[in-house]
Design the sequence.
C-alpha cells in the first residue's frame, strides 16, 4: 500500500470531500469496504485493467491525513489476450489523474516526495 501526502497547506478532506464518490467516478462502483493496515478502504474489484483498487484515508493523530491506495493491475499477457492494451493506457491516466486531483501533486512531485520519505537521515558523529 502507498501513502500520499497533500500539498503544503492543503488537506485531503478539502480537496476530496466525498472520497467514495471520487473513487467511483474514476474506477467504478465500490463493491465493499475493508480494513487494511488500520485504514478503512473502499474496494473496487475487477475493472477492465485492475483486478482490485483500494482507496482510503490514513488518519494520523497530530498530523495531516494521507491518501492510502493499493492498485492490483491485471497481467499484461491477460490484457493482451483480452484485447485491452489500449484500455491500460486510459487506466494509467485515470489513476494518475485521480492521485493528482486528490493530492494536488503531479506524478513527478509524488515520486520525489516518496524518495525523500525513504532516504535515511544523515547521522552526525559527535
Sequence:
Amino acid at each position: 500500500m502507498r501513502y500520499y501526502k497533500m500539498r503544503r497547506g492543503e488537506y485531503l478532506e478539502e480537496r476530496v470531500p466525498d472520497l467514495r464518490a471520487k473513487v467511483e467516478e474514476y474506477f467504478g462502483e465500490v463493491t465493499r469496504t475493508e480494513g487494511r493496515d488500520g485504514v478503512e478502504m473502499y474496494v473496487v474489484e475487477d475493472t477492465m485493467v485492475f483486478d482490485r483498487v483500494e482507496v482510503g484515508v490514513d488518519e494520523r493523530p497530530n498530523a495531516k491525513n494521507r491518501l492510502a491506495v493499493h492498485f492490483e493491475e491485471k497481467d499484461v499477457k491477460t490484457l493482451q489476450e483480452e484485447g485491452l492494451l489500449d484500455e491500460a493506457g486510459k487506466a494509467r491516466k485515470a489513476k494518475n489523474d485521480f492521485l493528482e486531483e486528490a493530492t494536488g501533486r503531479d506524478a513527478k512531485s509524488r515520486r520525489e516526495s516518496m524518495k525523500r520519505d525513504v532516504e535515511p537521515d544523515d547521522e552526525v558523529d559527535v
Observations:
- Strands lie at 2-4, 32-36, 39-45, 50-58, 66-73.
